[in-house]
Specification:
The chain is an alpha/beta fold. Helix content is about 40%, strand content about 20%. It contains 9 helices and 9 strands.
Amino acid sequence: MERNGLKFAAYRHIGHRRVQGYTETAAIGLLQAVDEYQRAAGIGGPIAEIGVHHGQLFIAMKLLQQPGEAAIAIDLFEDQDANIDKSGQGDRDRFLAHLDSWTDRDGLIIHQGDSTQISPGEIAEMSGVRLFSVDGGHTQEIVLSDMRLAEKSLTEGGVVIADDVFNQQWPGVCVGTVHYLEKGGALVPFYIGYNKVLFTQPEHATRYRQALDAAYSGRTMTAVFESSFVGHPVSVLVPVPKHPVHIARRNETLRSTYRKITKGR
């Protein structure tokens, strides 16, 4: 894992910028925090993504792959006639070229086609998934279908990483996600940040929240707030503006010093 850890760090900070995509840099750090919790908790299983595009997030997930785990990539790729909302344009050759530049093809399974036509269990290796990124079609119908597929494929304690839920360019994603939660979805949201919403089974949500809250507590450029989404408690990561005043407000030592000074006036 040490060698892959070094590769992951290089990819997180530099490499992902060389792969065309829309993943925020900080979202890769959030992915790493989830992986660290899963390793500590003994949660294993394949990784999977719907909507691979050129591989920007998938490569980060692949670099966190544990020995023997499958890595399932689902995308329309060259079948762009089926891309009804034009949310991204996958390219299989570019995806594989980027993959080869940063990692390997161990356990790689590529499924080219419409994710809404995949039945749970159809892809044999896509069972007991621990990390499942949902970033395919952005209509409410597709999002609802993809979330249900991810739910049925997830291992106990696994996490679904949903993209663009609050992106104003794609309101259908939010509507589809809310419909999933209101129409019997078995997963619940527990963390929101960097254009991602994380889901898991209800019995694991609190432990994940606590672990991630601890991982992000005290970080100068990030604030963690408690909120709720469709009736479920969530933590929300909010970037702190890069301004000395905002940084000082986040620093307990500086705040304590300020209070002592003002009391002495």
